[in-house]
Amino acid sequence: MLIECPECAHSVSDRASACPQCGFPIAEHVQQAAQREQEQQDLATRSVAGRTDCPKCEARGFVMASFENDQGETREGFTWCDRCGHSGRVALAKSSRGFWAVTDDQVDAFLAGEIGESDGATYIGDESPPPRYPDRAAEADAKRGQAD
Ligand SMILES: [Zn+2]
Ligand SMILES: [Zn+2]
Q: How far is the CA of 112 from the centre of ligand 2 (A)?
C-alpha cells in the first residue's frame, strides 16, 4: 500500500524502511501507527466478563509473607490479600487485546480507559484462565438459588 510520507508528502510504500526522498523512518512510523490503533481498539472494546482469580493471592484470599516476631525471629505466616479484599476473586474484564483481572475498586477507571496495566489491572492473556479453586461464594449462591 502507498502512503504519504509525513515529512515530505512523497508517495512511498508502507513497507519501505525509510522514505527514498527525505529519509523519514517509514517502517517505524507505520509500526507506531499500528500500535496506537491497537491501543485505541483496546480502550474502545473494554467490558466486564465475570469474575476471575485474584492474580496476587491466586484465589486464596491471603498471601504468604515473612515477618519478624517479638523475639526478632523471622517467621513465615499469612496476611490477608488487600487486592481482592480477602475474597480471592476480582473482576474479569476483556478487550480486543485479551483478558484482564481488575480489582473491584478499579473497574470503573479501567472501563473508562483511565488505567492500563497498573496495580489495579493485570493483563492475563488471550484466554480466560479457568478458576484455580472453586468459587465458594458462587457455589453457596447457586445452592441457595436451587433451594428457593
Ligand atoms: Zn519523505
Ligand atoms: Zn487476592
A: 23
Point out the ligand nearest to the CA of residue 5: 1
Cα(114) to centroid of ligand 2, in Å? 22
- One-letter amino acid for residue 76 of the chain: E
CB contact at 8 A, 115 and 121? yes
Distance CA 147, CA 71 (A): 52
Under 8 Å between Cβ of 138 and 132: no
5-59 confidence digits (pLDDT tens): 999 999 999 999 999 999 999 999 999 999 999 999 999 999 999 999 999 998 8
How far is ligand 2, taken at its centre, from the CA of residue 68, in Å?
23
- Tell me which residue of 41, 48, 50, 52 sits closest to 96, measured CA to CA: 41
Rounded CA gap, 90 and 50, in Å?
9
Q: What is the pTM of this model?
A: 0.72
End-to-end Cα separation, the chain, in angstroms? 63
